[in-house]
Amino acid sequence: MSVASVGVGALRTAFQMLFDAVKSVQEETTMFKHLLGDIKSTLNSLQPLIQEIEKYNSKEGLEYFTVQMEKGADLVQKCSKVGVWQKCKYTKKLHQLEKSLRRVFDELKLQGVRDARETLVSLRNIETAFSRIEKNLVMKSNQPETVKCSYAVPEPPSVTVGLDLPLRELKMKLLKDEKVSMLVLTAAGGCGKTTLAKKFCQDQEVKDTFKNNIFFVNVSKKPNLDLIVHELYQLKGFEPPAFQNEFMAVNWLQQFLKKERHNPLLFVLDDVWSGSESLLDKFDQFKFSNYKILVTSRFAFPRFGSPYHLALLNDEDAMALFHHSASSEDKSSYTSEDLSRKIMKRCKGWPLAIALVGRSLRGQPLEIWQKRVLEWSKGSSILDTDKDLLACLQSSLDALDKEKTMIKECFLDLGSFPEDQRIAAATLIDMWAELYGLEEEILTIANLHGLTIRSLANLVVTRREREADGYYTEDFVTQHHMLRELAIHQAIQDPIEQRKRLVINICGDNLPKWLTEQKYQASKARLLSISTGSINLYKTLATVQKNGLVGNKGNVVIQNQEGFHDLGQFLNLQCYSWIG
Asked: How many distinct structural domains can be found in the chain?
């Protein structure tokens, strides 16, 4: 933290102490009420000046002003205990305080003007710099060397599949629709957003439109406007300045956009995370016909218009990507069509999963392919072997800060439901009302919207108005298999007796060994997911309750069960079932 920010913070704190003291003592005593009213009026005049000084981050003379206000606060506090015989003495001191605050007012006003003048000088320097840049670019354009059509735009992978249609649709929205200045390209992590954005920038029609005014900026989780503007300065071919604060960076960006508004201009803001709305506002504040912004994000940013949702790969494109990833450069690697189809069924069109699995099997013997498929059939997760895929997906959950813990809990609960099934919103309303006390159904729907705009689930709203019974009876939720695996993977990280959610997948007639063992302490799991036939369902539930693995009045999700109706012996469990 800079000395300036410390000084401004101390001044702001001292001012607030004095203001609160004046307000409190004025209410407690009538002896100095009129004089304290004058001081309060002076403080009201001072407040905007202090805010102005804070904006410029100035430190000149702040220590003196801070001391004056701290002494003033101490004096005012003493006035609340003054007797009548001391009134004259403290009246004189309060008059001196009021005069001192007037001097502070005059000094801060003068300093604010001085800082503003310095800012204007800096802005003029920016304008001068732009003039030099323009002259420099004109000189370069007159030279015989060919000027590149884009700056700092990374090349897409040599082989891309399934992006031709999305590319055409992006061009239609950004290039043809004059009403669209910013378009958010959204999907979950590992779905190809950045690859599509790179492909968009390298498209010949796009390059012909924007020429050398295409800027590709990786924003990431912690955006730094200073660095972004610094990079733009460099890309324009001029020595970048050192910004003292973000205020100056914003002004430089504004000047940049004003200067470039007569030329087609494209910004690609890549990998923008939730919470970066203020950054998007700074880029989107100017509206002119040939200025376009493409944002890639896992977050939909709905207030910036209708986003473009990037779809997953269809079967044909998924297989093409897998064959490319699993084959050596000389095309000699073995690829079994039957095993490839089973692997594609597991990846379900998720580009990053397909590429990573294919790469891991490249050059491997047939038995390794067979082993991978066999492990998956026995309940192993694709996330157990592909750590890069896990890290990519896990980062979406890590981004849910403490204020979004409820959304994270709701996401993890969705992993208890069957894959490739619609989950009725009414079911979730009932379940989460019991688990989390979300008695109002709109709270559940709001959480589902929160998951949807973060690309962690998909809420399908079939009707805009609610049914007469108050439930969203026709709405439903879907979740991709890969996200369900993420939820399950997250749920099983804790020891069994500490898990909030238990997922039991049973194949055949035998229960999992860990379930029949009685070495675990009683668990407080509140959600139980069972995938089994009716023969084992009674046995499974009995074992679960016997070993105390589910808390009282827990919830159970029963998958793939046949003909199971009587749950009378398990009255403490609220059941949600699917006929498989």
From this structure: 4
User: Model's pTM, two decimal places?
Assistant: 0.69
Q: Alpha-carbon torsion 438, 442, 273, 482, what sign?
A: positive
Q: Is pLDDT larger for residue 194 or for residue 260? A: 194
Please determine, for residue 404, whether its predicted confidence score (pLDDT) is greater than 90.
no
Q: Are 149 and 156 in contact (CB under 8 A)?
A: no
Distance CA 152, CA 235 (A): 8
Whether 294 and 167 share a structural domain = yes
pLDDT for 183 beyond 90: yes
Whether residues 171 and 212 share a domain: the answer is yes
Please answer whether residues 233 and 132 qualify as being in contact, where contact means their C-beta atoms are separated by less than 8 angstroms.
no
**262-286: average pLDDT:** 89
The percentage of the chain sitting over the pLDDT mark of 70, rounded to a whole number, equals: 71
Query: Among residues 294, 309, 324, which one ends one of the domains?
Result: 309
Cβ contacts of 178 within 8 Å, gap of 6 or more: 289
SS3 573: coil
Pair (203, 109) in one structural domain: no
Q: What is the pLDDT of residue 123?
A: 46
Query: What's the CA gap between 300 and 453, in Å, rounded?
Result: 5
The domain containing residue 202 runs over which residues?
Answer: 163-309
Q: In angstroms, rounded to a whole number, what is the distance separating the alpha carbons of residues 305 and 2? A: 38
**Helix/strand/coil for 561:** strand
Last residue of a domain, which of 309, 328, 344?
309
So what's the pLDDT on residue 120? 46
**Distance from C-alpha of 256 to C-alpha of 213, rounded to nearest angstrom:** 12
Q: Which of 27-31, 406-410, 432-436 has the highest mean pLDDT?
A: 406-410
Are 88 and 205 within one domain? Answer: no
Domain-located, residue 566: no
Both 169 and 299 in one domain: the answer is: yes
> Which stretch of DSSP H or E encloses residue 568?
none
Is 504 in a helix, a strand, or coil? strand
Q: Tokens for 463, please give them.
A: 């009707």
Find the length of the chain: 580
What was the pLDDT predicted at 561?
43
Q: Using alpha carbons, select from 230, 254, 221 the residue that is nearest to residue 152.
A: 230
DSSP category for residue 495? -
Give residue for tokens 């099934």.
421
Asked whether the beta carbons of 189 and 195 are under 8 A apart, the reply is no
Confirm if 237 and 133 have CB atoms less than 8 A apart: yes
Residue 191 host element (H or E): none
- C-alpha span between 19 and 356 (Å, rounded): 61
User: Which amino acid does the sequence have at 553?
Assistant: K
- The residue among 175, 202, 154, 137 whose CA lies nearest residue 264 is 175
190-to-313, 347, 437 alpha-carbon distances in Å:
12, 12, 34
Count of CB atoms within 10 A of residue 229's CB? 23
The reply to whether 418 and 549 lie within a common domain is no
- Considering the domain architecture, whether residues 455 and 537 belong to the same structural domain is answered as no
Q: Examine the domain organization and report whether 472 and 510 are in the same domain.
A: no
**Cβ atoms 431, 574 nearer than 8 A:** yes
Residue 89 sits in a domain whose CATH number is 1.20.5
The 3-state secondary structure of 271-320 reads EECCCCHHHHHHHHCCCCCCEEEEEEECCCCHHHCCCEECCCCCHHHHHH
